[in-house]
Design a protein that fits this description.
By secondary structure, the protein is mainly beta. Helices cover 0% and strands 36% of the residues. The protein is built from no helices and six strands. The protein has a six-stranded antiparallel β-sheet with strand order 1-2-6-5-4-3, with no helix packed on it. A hairpin with a 5-residue loop joins strand 4 and strand 5 (72-79).
């Protein structure tokens, strides 16, 4: 299939313990997730980003899908304007990034 992300875009989100982590959703499902700065061949769910149950304080999430087959690939995390938690200019924070299921 088509590439989704490249090794050069893998990075560790400030406050995380690396670039590959296990995150648990409210239903108890564990997602092995790699964080990357950019993705290709991905589409976003047609809904507003939400802060509900976010794994990264100050970042709202939107579900991402494979452009070719429609499979759930992960999430786009976007910094919420005026957030008290996320500080993009401190500690290498970023305005947005992606969590790709591994």
């Amino acid at each position: 299939g088509a590439p989704i992300a490249f090794k050069r875009d893998v990075f560790s989100v400030p406050g995380a313990t690396g670039c590959n982590n296990a995150y648990v959703n409210p239903h108890g499902v564990v997602h092995q997730t790699v964080t990357v700065r950019r993705v290709t061949n991905v589409v976003m769910e047609a809904s507003l980003p939400t802060l509900r149950d976010t794994w990264f304080p100050g970042y709202a999430w939107t579900i991402t899908y494979c452009k070719s087959c429609g499979s759930h690939l992960g999430w786009k995390f976007s910094l919420v304007t005026g957030s008290l938690f996320a500080k993009p200019h401190e500690g290498g924070g970023v305005s947005h990034f992606y969590g790709i299921r591994g």
